[in-house]
Design brief:
heterodimer, A: 396 residues, alpha+beta, 6-stranded antiparallel sheet, 18 helices, globular, B: 118 residues, 5-stranded antiparallel sheet, 39% helix
């Protein structure tokens, strides 16, 4: 886009414009319109985070989110490590997704199609509104049962939830939806490859290999399929050599999924340990703030295997760690037996205090509250932490 | 016992309830067709597994244990030598249900003093 095109004033009304639709807003926008070509030129000739910031802010004030998004994408590619640019990218991405969500909602209402539902779901995911994303995709496959994209997108979204909850029911849905997406559109090999990768992740290597073989029957030179076959063959050979696998038997995927759900970890996935360690480290950094906020001395992070950590490192086994680990494990099994879904929180309320466990991704954060009357406030702080709303306490 | 428990039937958000001994034997449960045996057994295991460490931490006596999950909630309230477990919806505002459950608990407590089961 050249500078003369840029200089043309945008006449489309937008949300930012509506908010400043008064004399002050008018003056500010007039100034932005006048200075826009200058800012475009500055960014074009001397690209720097500061010139990007000026241009993007002006575009946002003028309500041109689409253009701001194009510019910020370009800026992000050039200055990925700059904090200002990263923050700018986050803000514009959110504004762009909100705009996309509104337009997709309108399209779904006025001219519904599978593509419109998929776009709605994608924007909802970007805005972290997973409920809306699930609803859009459920509606998509209900109205358009032959939409392979719908099934594949739903499987992808459920896989994210499975990685967090490890619910066997979700695992079964992922397998079913990916198979269905593949049946509906056999030309797209990404679905069977994704299915094979998921099967391999849960430890069903033989089923994964069978899926890959089917892909290779259609396209014997498919590079990703060949690479996956090679790595799977190595794993299977090693397992057979160790006597842990019978090559003539089939994998019982349902049993593997149930086992993972019960153990709360994916034993066969080497990345699982690293993923949990990353989560633990992230949560541990919040413990001092949580302590300050709640006035509780005992705050800790509990890993799925039962390991307990505070901000200094692993906590040696003691009655509190034992109680928390037992409670979390029993709760998980009880929830599964009662068909209650993934555990979100556990509260043990007694006359002597309360023990609160709040799940955060795959781990849990625990708080021992000495005064039972403080338990509701402690619970609110835990929820705020998990939802990313916890703020440091200001010094008095 | 069943008559008292049946008062929980129809309470908004309540899916089922059971009264059990602390070692997992079901005294009464609603609805009739539901199989709560596994839940009772596991709840009993929970109580046993946490008993010792809870005592060491002075977390006694237990007043209520709440397990919140993506599909619902499970409440466990000790009633003398028995325990009352309620399975409820996750979305429903529980204060009304809890008031009912508390009232039920008191009645069960009175009854358990008169008529100690087993």
């Amino acid at each position: 886009m050249n500078e003369s095109q840029w200089s043309r004033a945008r006449s489309i009304p937008s949300a930012p414009l509506a908010r400043t639709d008064n004399a002050v807003g008018f003056l500010a926008r007039s100034r932005d319109r006048l200075l826009l070509p200058l800012k475009v030129g500055k960014w074009k000739h001397t690209p720097a985070p500061s010139s990007l910031n000026e241009l993007v802010q002006a575009l946002l004030r003028l309500g041109d989110v689409e253009q701001a998004w194009e510019v910020v994408k370009d800026g992000f590619a050039r200055f990925k490590d700059n904090d200002l640019v990263r923050e700018l990218h986050r803000i514009v991405a959110r504004a762009h997704a909100e705009l996309g969500l509104k337009s997709a909602q309108k399209e779904v209402k006025e001219k519904p199609s599978a593509t419109a539902f998929l776009r709605l779901a994608r924007c909802a995911v970007l805005l972290r509104d997973l409920d809306q994303a699930f609803h859009a995709l459920d509606e998509c496959i209900r109205r358009y049962p032959t939409s392979a994209h719908g099934y594949a997108a739903l499987a992808e979204l459920i896989e994210q939830r499975w990685l967090r909850d490890l619910a066997a029911a979700d695992g079964r849905l992922i397998i079913n939806y990916l198979r269905k997406a593949w049946r509906l559109d056999g030309s797209d090999a990404s679905r069977p490859l994704r299915l094979a990768a998921f099967l391999a992740r849960i430890g069903a290597q033989r089923s994964a290999l069978d899926t890959i073989e089917e892909v290779l029957q259609l396209d014997e030179r498919h590079a990703d399929a060949l690479a996956l076959r090679e790595s799977l063959t190595k794993v299977i050979d090693a397992e057979v050599a160790a006597g842990r696998l019978n090559p003539d038997l089939n994998d019982d995927t349902d049993s593997l999924l149930r086992q993972i759900e019960e153990q709360g970890r994916v034993g066969s996935d080497p990345n699982d340990t690293a993923r949990i360690a990353r989560e633990t480290e992230k949560l541990r950094a919040w413990l001092p703030i949580l302590r300050k906020k709640t006035g509780c001395d005992h705050a800790f992070v509990l890993e799925p295997k039962g390991g307990c950590f505070d901000e200094k490192g692993q906590v040696a086994s003691n009655p509190l760690t034992g109680l928390a680990a037992n409670l979390a494990r029993s709760a998980q099994i009880t929830a599964r037996r009662a068909d209650l879904g993934a555990v979100i929180e556990i509260a043990l309320e007694t006359a002597g205090g309360a023990l609160l466990l709040q799940r955060a991704q795959r781990c849990a954060i625990g708080l021992l509250v000495d005064d039972p009357s403080l338990a509701p406030a402690a619970h609110d702080a835990l929820v705020a932490l998990v939802e990313g709303r916890l703020t440091p306490v200001a010094a008095k | 016992m069943k008559d008292i428990l049946q008062k929980l039937e129809g309470v908004p958000g309540v899916r089922g309830a059971l009264v059990m001994t602390l070692d997992g034997v079901i005294i009464a449960s609603i609805p009739d067709e539901a199989d709560h045996a596994a839940v009772a057994a596991f709840l009993s295991a929970v109580l046993v597994s946490i008993e010792k460490s809870a005592e060491q931490l002075n977390l006694v006596p237990l007043q209520r244990m709440t397990l919140t999950t993506s599909n619902g909630r499970l409440l466990l309230l000790p009633v003398g030598d028995l325990a009352l477990a309620v399975i409820a919806d996750a979305q429903t505002e529980l204060s009304a249900v809890l008031a009912q459950v508390t009232a039920m608990t008191r009645r069960l407590l009175r009854q358990s003093k008169i008529d100690v089961p087993l």
